UniProtKB/TrEMBL annotation:
Protein name: Carbohydrate ABC transporter permease
Ranges annotated as spanning the membrane: 34-53, 101-123, 132-155, 161-181, 220-241, 261-286
Keyword hit for Transmembrane: yes
PROSITE patterns: ABC_TM1 (PS50928)
Length: 301
């Protein structure tokens, strides 16, 4: 019976030539055309031009901005103008720089932490009123920030916090956009089966968040931290109101360069470039890790 039901094994003749493998055909449209490169080049030039214009004026003298026949090559006065900005006693450059670093770093870390916690709760925990609460959080983004300036100032004035960094850090510890961002990302990045497996192993809700949610949220958290840091660094309206000249952030301190009767725009734009250098260094050193984290999250997703 075994010889009757046995499956015949094909015999391969070693003298026969091997069939050549077909090369995969390239997918049409997989490589961008000239229009894509032209559009990207135009966007790149439009993004670089403000920095180049600031360098062009900031490296000249007080008459450069009004010179119709100015050279489009940077001058040699940038370091002198930068030294004038740093040495200006009204600007108080180094304390303002330190205040910006501290406030922006604390705000970015706090927003990432609380947004990841809230995003995990809205995305993966089931509780009564959760969807409506998320709608309420997102709806707060429609409220203009200017409406809360007067109540906030009265509150911090009664607390005696005006002129201190806590007055600009405390209101920015959470972000409705950050909560929505992390909720949408964690809802797609973390499968429910992984959470159930962690619970079967005896992990608590917070331990599941630390071991499952935090590693999965790193790409989105990195993006949120970067954008929050840049937004807090460039924030001018509220720090200008609640802080004083003795304890300003960098944008508020640089605005004092325009408080005189005669405004030297070469010095002003040199100060603008000085305030931009830390952000450029942040993108240079954190850009590679940021892009790798995003690509890793995209591949896993």
């Amino acid at each position: 019976m075994s010889s009757v039901n046995a499956v015949p094994v094909p015999v391969i003749d070693p003298d026969l030539p091997a069939k050549p493998r077909r090369r995969p055909r390239p997918v049409r449209g997989s490589r961008p055309g000239w229009f894509v490169y032209a559009a990207l080049g135009a966007v790149l030039l439009a993004s670089i031009f403000p920095f180049y214009w600031s360098l062009l004026i900031g490296s000249g003298d007080s008459s450069t901005i009004r010179d119709a026949n100015r050279s489009w090559l940077p001058g040699g006065n940038f370091f002198a103008n930068a030294a004038a900005v740093i040495g200006d006693p009204a600007v108080n450059f180094w304390p303002a720089l330190l205040n910006s670093i501290i406030s922006s770093g604390l705000i970015a870390a706090s927003v990432v932490f609380f947004s990841t916690l809230a995003g995990w709760a809205f995305a993966k925990l089931r509780f009564r009123g959760g969807p409506w609460l998320l709608v309420f959080v997102v709806a707060t983004m429609a409220v203009p920030t200017q409406l809360g300036v007067v109540p906030l100032y009265i509150l911090f004035s009664e607390l005696g916090w005006t002129g201190q960094l806590g007055a600009i850090i405390i209101p920015a510890l959470t972000s409705a956009f950050g909560v929505f961002w992390m909720t949408q990302y964690l809802r797609q990045a973390v499968p429910d089966e992984l959470i159930e497996a962690a619970r079967v192993d005896g992990a608590s809700s917070f331990r599941t968040f630390l071991t499952v949610g935090v590693p999965a949220a790193r790409p989105a958290a990195a993006m949120l931290a970067l954008f929050t840091f840049v937004s807090a660094w460039n924030n001018f309206f509220w720090p200008f109101i609640v802080l004083d000249r003795q304890n300003p952030t960098l944008p508020v301190a640089l605005s004092l360069l325009q408080s005189n009767y005669f405004v030297d725009y070469s010095i002003v734009l040199a100060g603008v470039l000085l305030s931009t250098i830390p952000l450029l260094l942040l993108f240079v050193f954190a850009g590679k890790q940021l892009v790798s984290g995003i690509m890793q999250g995209a591949v896993k997703g």
